Amino acid sequence: QTHTHAHAHRHTQTHTHAHPSTTRTHTAFITMGGKLSIQLNAGVPNDLKLSYLPVRARGEAPRMMLIHYGVKFEDEVVDFATWGGSRKAEAPFGQLPLLTANGAKLAQSGSIIHYLAEISGCSLRDRLMNARIDVYFELYNEFLNKHPINPIANGFIAKEEIPAKVAACVKDFHDTYCDWFAKGLELLEGPFFGGKRPHYADFAVWSLVDIIMFMQPDLLDKPEVKGLVAMKAWYQAVAELPKIKTYLAARPAPNGH
Fold first, then answer.
1. For 8-22, how does the pLDDT look when each residue is reduced to its tens digit (9 = 90+)?
2. Tens of pLDDT along 215-240?
3. Distance between CA atoms of 88 and 50, rounded to whole angstroms?
4. What pLDDT is attached to residue 104?
């Protein structure tokens, strides 16, 4: 990966870890086939840029989508000092992630995911089936709204509160969401929610499971939990995608760890 550091003196160097205020550019080819289709309309914007803080959270799924499907984009990591200055005031709703495309600035992670799905080939041609799989993307959002697992992993929750919050998150995943997600894997033939190729729901749910596992490494080592065997095989299948495997080997630990 090539990282361009946006400091007072700009320079470019190649390394394998993220750094505040860096820009990472990923270049490959967009692929088509199977039951997935790319709807390019005006094509992939030349100025496509994903901006996010140096944390693992809402920026992880769109980044993984773009990397896997080979869409060229600028991966801007905004350090906290910069974000606390002028950048937050300039951002729609004062929020990140932020996607820049054809000069437009798109906020809200769900809107970003759905737009990128259209230009990367991460959605299904069958609109009804795509909606049925989108349900699992919405379950991902629901879970994150119920449990502060991203703030916990990234160092924004008081240490004395962490054990109870992690336990509640893991219990809810094992008792309810694991089986719900596993049922989504039965809709199409193949290892992914999208069948033989990953859907945007795959990258969203994977990022959720992965961040829980950061706090609870044995999350998927409970075969007695309903749906867990299928979920563990699916998790490994996503992690072994070649471009994703390369990305995961180079990404930094969550903020604060």
1. 222 222 222 333 334
2. 999 999 999 999 999 999 999 999 99
3. 15
4. 93
Averaged pLDDT for residues 196-213: 97
189: Cα separation from own chain's centroid: 23
Contact between residue 211 and residue 254 where contact means Cβ atoms under 8 Å apart: yes
The answer on pLDDT for 167 being more than 60 is yes
AA identity, residue 198:
P
DSSP secondary structure, 96-160, as one string: S-EEEETTEEE-SHHHHHHHHHHHHT-SBSSHHHHHHHHHHHHHHHHHHHH--HHHHHTT-S-GG
User: CA geometry: angle at 140 spanning 17 and 156, to 5°?
Assistant: 50
**CA distance linking residue 86 with residue 172, whole number of Å:** 39
Determine the Cα–Cα distance for residues 31 and 185; give it in Å rounded to an integer: 22
- For residue 5, report the phi and psi dihedrals to the nearest 5 degrees: -85, 125
Beta bridge partners of 105: 100
- Going from the C-alpha of 89 to that of each of 13, 75, 95, 97, 177, the distances in angstroms are 30, 20, 9, 14, 37
Instruction: Encode pLDDT of 36-57 as tens digits.
Output: 333 333 478 999 999 999 998 9
CA–CA distance, 81 with 151 (Å, rounded to integer): 18
Q: How far apart are CA 169 and CA 46, in angstroms?
A: 40
In one letter, which amino acid is 27? T
